[in-house]
Amino acid sequence: MENQLFPVFFKLNRLRVLVVGGGNIGLEKANAILQNCAESNISIVSLDFLPELEDIARHYPNVELIRKPFSCGDLLGKDLVIAATNDKTLNYTVWEKAKGAKVLINVADTPELCDFYLGSIVQKGNLKIAISTNGKSPTVAKRLKQVLQEAIPDTLDEVLQKLHIIRDKLKGDFAAKVKQLNNITDVLVKPEKEDA
Length: 196
Ligand SMILES: C[C@@]1(CC(=O)O)C2=NC(=C\c3[nH]c(c(CCC(=O)O)c3CC(=O)O)Cc3[nH]c(c(CC(=O)O)c3CCC(=O)O)/C=C3\N/C(=C\2)[C@@H](CCC(=O)O)[C@]3(C)CC(=O)O)/[C@H]1CCC(=O)O
Ligand SMILES: NC(=O)c1ccc[n+]([C@@H]2O[C@H](COP(=O)([O-])OP(=O)(O)OC[C@H]3O[C@@H](n4cnc5c(N)ncnc54)[C@H](O)[C@@H]3O)[C@@H](O)[C@H]2O)c1
Fold this sequence. Notes:
Blueprint: E1 16-22, H1 24-36, E2 41-49, H2 51-59, E3 63-67, E4 80-83, H3 88-100, E5 104-107, E6 120-124, E7 127-131, H4 138-151, H5 156-169, H6 174-189
Bound molecules: ligand PQ2 and nicotinamide-adenine-dinucleotide.
């Protein structure tokens, strides 16, 4: 199998993220995380920080900037790490230490070392679609996100909310509920039936 990635959806308000490097990529990744979960717990360790990151830290009490060189102890209590310094050897060291501490790591300049990739994300209320190109072209992932963001109607979130209410009201055993939900949502995959 060429593409071995298995997408999952992290609840970042209950995990602790360490970002090493406060430059362009540290900023990009921190922004991506915060756009999905404003309550993400993020610590950023770096020798210096872009002013945009300082603004973010002022705005989000859950984002902490720590001005110092990376050291192994920074990994303590962390669940996910993003190594985003401009020093490839240091990024490798962060990877080694993270592996030793059993913390999942993304090394921004070395896809082969990544335990996970960040996806390009379509957001429509409760609906989220994460796109990956298996690391082949993040730009194509970004473009596809823009296409889907436009193509999916904003009203889809209302459908989700209504289905959620119906889901709670349905009676019967699990199989019966699945059958009823499939019947109600049939129209979403076979709209031509409407015309008949
Ligand atoms: C999706 C997105 C999520 C995010 O970051 O939030 C993301 N990169 C985004 C943008 C982007 N990144 C780059 C460009 C420049 C043009 C280009 O190269 O295409 C652009 C486009 C732009 O900025 O416009 C350069 C780049 N990226 C990586 C490398 C290293 C390498 O490949 O060796 C280099 C070369 C560095 C260099 O040359 O020095 C690596 C990764 N980037 C990934 C994710 C992971 C794979 C995702 C997948 O499977 O598709 C992976 C493997 C690891 C990771 O970072 O998690 C985000 C879109 C956000 C959005 O939706 O708007
Ligand atoms: N994954 C992606 O999406 C992607 C996209 C573009 C570039 N990259 C790669 O990401 C890397 C970082 O790029 P950038 O533009 O953010 O670089 P940058 O120069 O803007 O920032 C690097 C940061 O690392 C910090 N740093 C350096 N040594 C440190 C140390 N010992 N301890 C703690 N912090 C330290 C610096 O203080 C600086 O804030 C590059 O190697 C680049 O190739 C990845």
